[in-house]
Write a structure and sequence with these properties.
Blueprint (H helix, E strand, L loop, with lengths): L1 E5 L3 H12 L3 E6 L2 H10 L1 E5 L2 E5 L2 E4 L12 E4 L6 H8 L8 E4 L6 H5 L8 E6 L4 E4 L2 E4 L5 E5 L5 H13 L4 E3 L3 H22 L3 H6 L3 H18 L6 H11 L11 H8 L10 H11 L4 H16 L4
Parallel strand pairs: 1-2, 1-6, 2-5, 3-10, 6-7, 7-8, 11-12
Antiparallel strand pairs: 3-4, 8-11, 9-10
Helix pairs in contact: 6-8, 6-9, 6-10, 6-12, 8-11, 11-12
The structure holds nicotinamide-adenine-dinucleotide (NAD).
C-alpha cells in the first residue's frame, strides 16, 4: 500500500518505520526541517526494543510535499492536535478521491476538522495504545507492544476499514476493527483528561497525583463531565470502568512513576499542550449542549495560564 505518514514525530516515526519494514511504500511528511534532514541523510534511526536499526524512508517538509508525485492509498494523521489543520492543508493536493485518511491523534472531535478537507466516506478514526519517544532529530525510541482500534465514520465503508486493518497488521501493528470507536476515543480522552492536566499543573507523576487525598474527588468530577458530554451525543462511557483504569495507572508497578505526555510537552520541552482537544473540547461541547463543565473549564484555563507563564503561548 502507498502510505503517507502526515506528522512524523514520535508516533508517526514508529508507524512509518514498522510499515516500511513490512514493505509498504511509505513517505514521511513533517514540519520539523532538522528532523527531515536527519532522516534523509542518515535514515530513521531507531532503538527498536533494544536493537539499533536504521530504516531508509523518504521524508519531506509539509511545505514541499505538494510538489511530490505520490498518489497515496492511505494517509495516517499523527500530528499534535494543534498542527492538524496546517498538515491537512499541506497534503490536500496529494489526496485523490479514493485516498483513505486514518486519524490516530489523541483527543476528541478531530473529524470535525478533517471533514473540511477529506470526503466523509474516506475518514477513519482510530485509537492506539502504541507508544513512542523522539530522542532527537531522526532518532526514535520504540519499546513495548501496543494495539489499534479503528472504524469508518461513514456507513458502508467497513470493507475499507478492514483493508486498513490488514495493511497495519502486515506490519505487526496489532490492529482490529471496532464497532464503537467513538466510545473508546472518549474513554482514552477521559483518562488523559483526568490525569495529564492535573499532573502538569501539580508538577507531579501519576502515582503522586493518585496519593493526593484530593485526587479522587477532582477526578470523579472531571469524569462526570466527560460522561455528560459523551451521553449528550449518545456515546456510552462506563464510569466504573474509566475510574478503574485511572486508578490502575496510579500504581508505581504499572505507569505510576511516569510523567504524562502533557507534562513532558509543557514542563520538560516548553511546547504547547493538547489541552484544547481533551478537556477544552468538553468545555466547548458543554456550551453547545448547555451542560456545565466547571472542572474541565478551570483545568483548561490553568494549563493555558501555565503555557503563558512559561512563555510557550
Ligand atoms: P511529537 O511531539 O513527537 O510530534 C508531533 C510533531 O512535533 C511532529 O511534527 C514532530 O516533528 C514535532 N516535534 C517533535 N519534537 C520537536 C522538536 N524538538 N522541535 C520541533 N518539532 C518537534 O508527537 P507524538 O508523540 O508523535 O504524538 C502525535 C499524536 O499521537 C498526538 O495526538 C499524541 O497525543 C498521540 N499519541 C502519542 C503517543 C506517544 O507515546 N508519543 C501515544 C499515543 C498517542
Amino acid at each position: 500500500m502507498k502510505i503517507i505518514i502526515a506528522g512524523a514525530g514520535a508516533m508517526g516515526s514508529r508507524f512509518g518505520l514498522m510499515l516500511h519494514r513490512a514493505n509498504h511504500e511509505v513517505v514521511l511528511v513533517d514540519g520539523w526541517q532538522e528532523h527531515i534532514d536527519a532522516i534523509n541523510k542518515n535514515g530513521l534511526q531507531a532503538n527498536f526494543n533494544g536493537e539499533k536499526i536504521v530504516e531508509n524512508i523518504s521524508a519531506y517538509n509539509q511545505n514541499e510535499i505538494a510538489k511530490v508525485d505520490f498518489s497515496a492509498d492511505l494517509v495516517i494523521l499523527f500530528t499534535k492536535a494543534m498542527q492538524l489543520d496546517s498538515m491537512l492543508q499541506s497534503i490536500n493536493s496529494l489526496l485523490h478521491e479514493d485516498t483513505k485518511v486514518l486519524c490516530l491523534l489523541n483527543g476528541i472531535g478531530h473529524e470535525d476538522r478533517i471533514k473540511k478537507y477529506v470526503p466523509y466516506q474516506n475518514i477513519f478514526l482510530g485509537n492506539t495504545m502504541w507508544t513512542s519517544g523522539l530522542q532527537g532529530p531522526g532518532k526514535v525510541k520504540l519499546f513495548g507492544d501496543g494495539s489499534i482500534d479503528l472504524q469508518n465514520l461513514a456507513q458502508g465503508q467497513e470493507q475499507a476499514a478492514n483493508t486498513i486493518v490488514e495493511a497495519l497488521n502486515q506490519a505487526d501493528l496489532n490492529a482490529k476493527y471496532s464497532s464503537n470507536i467513538l466510545s473508546s476515543i472518549y474513554k482514552k480522552a477521559c483518562v488523559n483528561g483526568s490525569v495529564n492536566g492535573l499532573c502538569t499543573i501539580l508538577e507531579c507523576n501519576i502515582a503522586s497525583l493518585g496519593a493526593s487525598s484530593y485526587a479522587n474527588t477532582i477526578i470523579s468530577q472531571i469524569v462526570d463531565e466527560f460522561i455528560a458530554i459523551a451521553s449528550a451525543q449518545n456515546i456510552f462511557l462506563d464510569k466504573d470502568e474509566v475510574l478503574t483504569q485511572i486508578k490502575s495507572s496510579f500504581d508505581p508497578e504499572t505507569i505510576g512513576l511516569h510523567y504524562p505526555s502533557m507534562y513532558q510537552d509543557l514542563i520538560d520541552n516548553k511546547r504547547l499542550t493538547e489541552i484544547d482537544y481533551i478537556n477544552g473540547v468538553i468545555v466547548r461541547k458543554g456550551k453547545q449542549y448547555q451542560i456545565s463543565t466547571p472542572y474541565c473549564n478551570f483545568l483548561t484555563e490553568l494549563i493555558h495560564s501555565k503555557e503563558e507563564i512559561l512563555g510557550v503561548r
